[in-house]
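Feature request, filed as a ticket because there's no other form

It would be nice if the structure record came with a short human-readable summary line next to the tokens. Right now we just get the raw output. Example of a typical job, pasted below so the devs can see what we mean:
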Amino acid sequence: MAVKIKLKRLGMIRNPQYRIVIADSRTKRDGRAIEEIGLYHPKENPSRIEIDAERAAYWLGVGAQPTEPVLKLLKLTGDWQKFKGEPAPAPLKVAEPKADRHAAYEAAAKEALSLDAAATTAKKSAKKPVKADEPAAETPAAPVAEEKPEGEA
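Raw output as currently delivered:
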């Protein structure tokens, strides 16, 4: 049985995501696999390439043949050079870790509470306190217009 290291396609239309699998050479592209040893997401920036180096070295050692796309990925990660005894390539670019959404929410909530407390304090200090000794200032009533009898102009 000829064993290949190949890509198994997952994902939606125009959003390919691949698993790097060990499979019989006669199986379909997305068919049954012996083992999954990694993944490849080409649409991310930078592309996400994760390969289990130990399992890749094992399968290469027992005679599994990588397909052309997988061979390029193995060369990018340095697993092929390790297998052949060549010098390792430059390290891959790695995406920055995503910010913790929970921590960002907590920080925004604290900021909103502090702004709200500051605004409330400012409103309270703007009002003059009314002392119990002094009567509240009465507002002058609006002058009442005198009514004229209907016959007069």
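Something like this underneath would help us a lot:
The radius of gyration is 37 Å.
The first helix runs from residue 53 to 61.
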